[in-house]
Design brief:
Structural class: alpha/beta
Mean pLDDT: 80
Order of helices and strands: EHEHEEEHEHEHHHHHH
Low-confidence stretches: 1-8, 146-155, 223-228
Strand content: 5-15%
Helix content: 40-55%
Largest sheet: 5 strands, parallel
Length: about 230
């Protein structure tokens, strides 16, 4: 629920994480930092968008894994509907895989969950002031690729060819969900999910359902290891 008592000099923060204990810890941490005040917290995309409309947050701290939902979709939606809200992605996912995607979706910063509380507070303040935040390693990698051409197809990882939605579907396949169950969770038609399967075979170079399942399980395991 939105909280009151913030002054005009205080950065109002929305915290989005699907784990209640983690979310409570983040709320307490940020509320205890001078100049920061959590105006709302949420565990899903719908709750987050409702909270943003109600509490007028300056900064949204968003986890990429929101149960069966994709945090990147929330980042892109916030960038489109609430352009004045600055987004900091807080995630356990590998920076090499997700920092660039988060920034391209509209985030102003990306910080991993293994950083210190002080570093998180500094990142929130930096993003709240309108400046970008990434780790030194990520910044160096991004700078070295500025102005370069896209990676050639023969050195591109297969999953790099997938859209964010397709990656999400692939993760659910790897978790053992059937086509209809995936469609119900994502609120899509069975036909749409089946079209994703066809795209997977083309983009990932798999020949049949067994090869697709093997790849999907490996991808889902990788996501599981990264998710804190």
């Amino acid at each position: 629920m939105p909280t009151s008592g913030s002054t005009s000099a205080t950065l109002r923060v929305l915290v989005v994480d699907d784990h209640p204990i983690v979310r409570k810890g983040l709320v307490d941490l940020l509320n205890g930092a001078p100049g920061l005040s959590v105006c709302a917290d949420a565990s899903s995309i719908a709750e987050s968008l409702d909270a943003l409309s109600a509490c007028q947050a300056h900064v949204a701290v968003i986890d990429l894994s929101l149960g069966t939902e994709n945090g990147l979709e929330l980042v892109a939606t916030v960038a489109e509907r609430h352009p004045d809200v600055r987004v900091l992605v807080l995630s356990g996912h590998d920076e090499d895989l997700y920092a660039d995607r988060a920034l391209k979706a509209g985030a102003l910063g990306y910080i991993k969950k293994d950083q210190s509380p002080a570093e998180l507070i500094a990142a929130v303040r930096r993003v709240g002031s309108g400046r970008s935040y990434v780790s030194a390693v990520a910044a160096e990698r991004i700078l070295t690729t500025l102005g370069s051409t896209r990676r050639k197809e023969d050195v591109q990882l297969p999953v790099d060819r997938l859209s964010d939605r397709e990656r999400h579907v692939l993760t659910l396949i790897g978790k053992g969900l059937a086509t209809r169950a995936i469609a119900e969770q994502l609120k899509l038609s069975v036909k749409t999910i089946e079209s994703h399967y066809a795209h997977f075979k083309e983009k990932l170079g798999v020949r049949n359902g067994r090869e697709l399942m093997r790849l999907a399980v490996g991808w889902s395991d990788e996501i599981g290891r990264a998710h804190v």
